[in-house]
Amino acid sequence: MVRITHKKYLLPFLSILVCCTPSIDDNTIAIIGRQKVPASTFHKQVPKNRFYSFDDSTRILKVENFLKEILIKKEIEKLQISKTPEIKDEMNLWSKKLVVGMLFNKMVVDKLFPENRLRKIYDNFIHERNISVIMIPYTNNDNDNIPSRNQVSILAEKIYELSDTVDFITLQKKYTKTPFRKGQKLGYWTQLFRGIKAVDRELWEYEVGDVCKPIDDGQSFRIIKVNDERIIDRMPPYQYYKDQLIRQVTELWKKPLLLEFGKYTETLLDSAEFYIDDSRVVEFSEQLMLETKNKDIIAGLKAMKYDVPFGKFDNIYLDRKWFIKTLQEEPNVLAYQLLDRNLAGSFIKGLINTKINYNAAIEMGIDKSPYYLEQYEDELEIRVRNYYNEIYYFAGLKITEEQLIDFYNENKDDYIIPAKVLTKLVWFNSDKEAQKHYQQIIDKKLSFEELYDKLKFSQDRSIGAKKEFIDMGSLTDPFRVLFTLKNNEISIPFNRGKKYYIVQVIEQILPQERSFNEVRLKIQMKLSKEIKEENEIKARKRLINRFNVIFNEDLIYSPELG
Q: N or C: which end of the chain has fewer CB within 10 A?
């Protein structure tokens, strides 16, 4: 093994290096504590051939980043972040949502969209349809210029009936109120019709050549003709697309699916002991409103004297104490609705619905399913890492307004808007043409304005004219000459690239200082970046001090060993 004891590029991240130890071998890239890190694990991320094509400093950076992630994971384990109250509370709330969502899929989505129906929808997804559309907008408000929904509905039905005997393009030209009034086709479309759910749901119920019954998208009625259909060869196979397909159909049929889930929830409530006294809910809401004023909801609940139960669920009386416990367990619910006598009842029923659905899911063992456990572990890993980053990497990112203002005052020169001129430019493809027209202007045979008007609509790209702001900060010669001219003065001809210019200065605009409000966000981003970089260095030092790292230097510098 080649021993390199004096290297220019020793790892800055891993300052504690022990290279001449018998415990390390050619198959180990590093030892962290008592854990050997195989070189093969590293090369799964950075293949050998590619790794040894880099220079020494790049190789070091690659290894440094690889080991850093391992050390972070070890520190997270030592800190037991997953057991902190914050993470436990977050995961508890997330878990309830996941469990209820899985119940929704099991009891509604899976029943309304069994495997055979999903495959049929997938078959639609792998096809594109060429369509023509007659679209007639309507209004739900009083508007003399736009017809009402009822008026458009009657007209749409009439057009649909006419489509049996009249050519669709003829109808399209006559009736459509969209840019497609000339009768052109819209080309090929997938089932995702620009997010118009009503069309997405209904379009594929028809065959090629059919005219669809009028579709109400909430803003207009659409009469669509299916002209043609073709297969998309870029769609993934069904087994890989199934999860995404379920998410799409859930979104497309969201309203009917939620209605069905509501029916299912009602059956659960019917079998449970549940009632609510609406008049007492109103009394409760009004008293809570009086007590809350300058307090948060929980403080208001604790202060109020109203202890009369306003309902019962699962052998538990619904009262002030129940609300305090519920809101402490689920702090993210929209508790402010309790302060509105018109919303309080539905809010309470919503909480009960969630609880009874959650209980039903637990009874079914949904929280023990492989899918749930996999999703839980993935989410836990993300939240733990975010928590760790907040503590060690993003700490101190709350920059005060005073810090921002101080930085602005100290660095005003960096936020100057350079001088600029408003110009009219004319250009030619030869110096001869430019000089000829310039002389005509000097001899007053032609005004610059006349020349400008003549050239600004030119179809020949080698000549032309335009009005343009020219920024001093972005200028190179010969355009800098423009800043020596007075308003309305014209330049002598000059060339840049293949063009020859004559320019008139319209207005000189002096450098301007950007206000603090204009650059506030930019300053905040700059300071945040600097703090993050500082935090990165501090975090690395903390990792180094916490773990004994032994690094195999030879594997970085000796490609023959790789």
A: N
